[in-house]
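A reminder from the course coordinator: this example appears on the midterm review sheet, so study it carefully.

Given structure:
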């Protein structure tokens, strides 16, 4: 006969919930008698452990929600930084406008983006890109342009302005073109038409029949500073080198140069480029195009290049598109037929030369060339008026018409390295029409 008490111990009448939830029961040897207080102290702290785990998970979930809704996690050069956004106008930085140029009923409209600015918080700039990231972002907006005409064949670069095919490039490379072919980053080719150009500024706009192109983002060139990093993308020499990327720094700003009868204020950099880079972009560290490379000047300065600032190029490009029929020829106006740059007081002192226009080239068809003006001469006065800056020269030039005779005071020093002073010459020359100027000029 079976003992009922033993049967009840072998087969419990209710489940052992403590065993199911918290695992095996603590051995009886660990209890000190049947004292409930001591039994509670001896049990494992599973409930406390679960509470701690739940609290940690709650903190992680809350932190993630804050990051998603109120901040940015930034990765730069392998490091991570967290930037908490503010809800007022004193935000650490304002996102740059990245709208691409658009074509409206009134013509083309280029929106220049400001670079992201930092506040007082010590965080890494979230907008700065590496050279590799800049190349990946901007290269699809840079094209190669094959030009054929009376001067033979040439290749230059261009920047896509709009997704429907407006492209900016160098005017000096396409001005005599009878045929233009554009090669985009994907390798696809398009026949292009010349919309218009401004030869004095060395800017032209062409158009291809395409849609969905990767238009560039253009930046505020007034924010560029000496020493800033720049990247250039272009097609030197031939198509096999399309998409060549190189980099450097801003060497100088506002290089005032006279070319083709027009005054150009350029960004100088130490990026070495060939003629095939002309019309291509210089790009800041935010991936914004801040200038268009010109090879119309700078050919005598190995190791340096020049670019038209976007703040100047913007107006010229928009004017070309908006009044295309008026921009397809040389701009008329009086000029001396020279290329030159202005020697400021500091540059003049460093060069042991007087303040004035330092001539770098003279067009052989000009009166100035016929009267003996040569590269290396410094024009200090026109009709007795001192050339204290480039504005003084422009004021005089704009007050004269083609055929007007003026007297130039010219300083010439055949050997600047000896101890002998140079001489001053008086040359009577007349202004010529800039539309009659040719590429043939004396440069030495």
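Designed residues:
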């Amino acid at each position: 006969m079976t003992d009922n008490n033993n049967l009840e111990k072998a087969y419990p009448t209710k489940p052992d919930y403590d065993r199911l939830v918290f695992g095996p029961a603590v051995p009886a040897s660990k209890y000190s008698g049947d004292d409930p207080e001591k039994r509670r102290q001896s049990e494992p702290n599973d409930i406390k452990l679960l509470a701690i785990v739940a609290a940690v998970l709650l903190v992680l979930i809350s932190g993630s929600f804050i990051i998603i809704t109120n901040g940015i996690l930034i990765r730069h050069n392998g490091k991570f930084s967290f930037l908490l956004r503010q809800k007022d106008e004193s935000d650490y930085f304002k996102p740059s406008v990245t709208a691409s140029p658009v074509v409206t009923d009134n013509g083309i409209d280029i929106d220049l983006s400001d670079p992201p600015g930092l506040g007082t918080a010590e965080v890494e700039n979230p907008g700065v890109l590496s050279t590799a990231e800049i190349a990946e972002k901007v290269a699809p907006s840079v094209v190669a342009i094959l030009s054929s005409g009376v001067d033979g064949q040439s290749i230059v670069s261009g920047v896509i302005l709009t997704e429907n095919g407006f492209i900016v490039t160098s005017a000096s490379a396409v001005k005599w073109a009878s045929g233009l072919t554009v090669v985009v980053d994907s390798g696809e080719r398009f026949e292009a038409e010349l919309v218009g150009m401004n030869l004095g500024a060395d800017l032209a706009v062409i158009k291809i029949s395409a849609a969905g192109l990767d238009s560039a983002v253009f930046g505020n060139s007034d924010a560029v500073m000496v020493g800033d990093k720049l990247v250039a993308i272009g097609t030197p020499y031939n198509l096999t080198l399309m998409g060549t990327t190189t980099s450097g720094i801003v060497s100088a700003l506002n290089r005032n140069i006279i070319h083709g009868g027009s005054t150009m204020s350029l960004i100088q950099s130490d990026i070495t480029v060939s003629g095939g880079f002309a019309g291509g972009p210089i790009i800041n560290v935010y991936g914004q195009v801040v200038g268009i490379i010109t090879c119309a000047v700078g050919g005598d300065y190995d190791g340096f290049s020049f670019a038209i600032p976007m703040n100047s190029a913007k107006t010229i490009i928009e004017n070309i598109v908006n009044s295309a029929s008026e921009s397809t020829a040389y701009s008329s106006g009086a000029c001396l037929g020279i290329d030159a740059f202005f020697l400021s007081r500091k540059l003049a002192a460093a060069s042991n030369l007087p303040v004035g226009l330092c001539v770098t080239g003279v067009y052989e068809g000009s009166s100035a060339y016929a009267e003996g003006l040569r590269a290396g001469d410094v024009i200090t006065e026109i009709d007795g008026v001192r050339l204290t800056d480039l504005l003084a020269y422009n004021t005089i030039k704009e007050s004269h018409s083609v055929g007007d005779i003026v007297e130039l005071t010219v300083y010439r020093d055949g050997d600047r390295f000896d101890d002998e002073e140079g001489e001053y010459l008086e040359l009577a020359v007349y202004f010529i029409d800039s539309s009659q100027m040719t590429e043939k000029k004396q440069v030495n």
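The longest strand covers residues 244-259. Residues 46-70 form the longest helix (25 residues).
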